[in-house]
Design a protein that fits this description.
Layout lengths: L4 H16 L2 E2 L2 E3 L10 H11 L3 H16 L11 H17 L7 H15 L5 H11 L5 E4 L3 H11 L7 E4 L10 H11 L7 E4 L2 H11 L3 E5 L15 E3 L5 H8 L1
Parallel strand pairs: 2-3, 2-5, 3-4, 5-6, 6-7
Antiparallel strand pairs: 1-5
Helix pairs in contact: 2-5, 3-4, 4-5, 8-9
Protein name: N-acetylneuraminic acid phosphatase
Cofactor: Mg(2+)
Keywords: Hydrolase, Magnesium
């Protein structure tokens, strides 16, 4: 089902905080890709333009979300990520209604969705202060998976550049987390060894597994949802509910 604006903003804050954990001593973090249902502006556009009811709009939303989940972007194909996602909207509308929509509607839906999503990405003052304190003592690097245009937009929206010594987007390289090669690149960029580093992130499969694969000193899982690791998942060295608890972990590692 669809979420209200407050729910989406809270989820975005949680993700931004996990992303902000970035890298310390250095710590490598994760900027997770938000996959969110269309916000109220997009729903209202579909309702007023096509006269759709809430159930039909939800069906279009579900199809769009599924296409995002299955998305495989190939820059060499000659289409921008924006064009690809406009196509997702167009296909979702057509598949739901069985007919074509006005030519500009899919693009309007996409840019409303995109802009509203970026607007809710932010770092809290507490997280910003934490990053400033950490950077005064440690090297920080933000490592995120995902396609370059999308992730760079998020990095810019959150103004991550002022908090990190380096930012690495996995989609700009041959392999992404959890592969060792992307971590090795990060170590070289900061002039450090794996054992000098800890990995902080909110994904067991990419962040924590990647840190384990790369042989970092310790891994820290930000479990903001207070979930439990599934059987067979990699076991983090430390688990905290918020990145704000990170100084306590660093004190133990001194």
């Amino acid at each position: 089902g669809e979420e209200n604006g407050g729910d989406l903003q809270q989820r975005a804050r949680n993700r931004a905080q996990a992303a902000a954990s970035g890298t310390i001593a250095p710590v490598y973090g994760s900027a997770a890709q938000p996959v969110e249902l269309p916000r109220c502006q997009t729903r209202e556009l579909l309702k007023t333009t096509l006269g759709l009811d809430d159930d039909t709009i939800r069906c279009i939303s579900d199809k769009f979300q599924q296409k995002l989940f299955l998305e495989r972007f190939d820059p060499s194909a000659g289409r921008s990520i924006d064009n690809v996602r406009v196509g997702h909207w167009e296909e979702s509308i057509t598949e739901t209604l069985g007919s074509c929509s006005p030519p500009s509607l899919a693009a309007q839906c996409y840019y409303l969705w995109k802009n509203s999503r970026l607007e809710v990405l932010c770092l809290s003052p507490e997280v910003c202060n934490l990053l400033k304190q950490l950077r005064s003592r440690h090297k920080l690097l933000l490592l995120t998976n995902g396609e370059s245009p999308i992730q760079r937009e998020k990095v810019k929206a959150v103004r991550c550049e002022e908090f990190f010594d380096a930012i690495v987007v996995g989609g700009e390289h041959a392999e992404q987390k959890p592969f060792v090669s992307i971590f090795t690149l990060c170590f070289k960029m900061l002039g450090v060894e794996a054992q000098d580093c800890i990995m902080v992130g909110d994904s067991l499969d990419t962040d924590i597994q990647g840190g384990f694969n790369a042989g970092v000193r310790a891994t820290v899982w930000i479990n903001s949802a207070e979930g439990t690791a599934s059987d067979g998942s990699v076991k983090p060295d430390y688990t905290i509910p918020t990145v704000l608890d990170l100084p306590g972990i660093l004190a133990q590692l001194q």
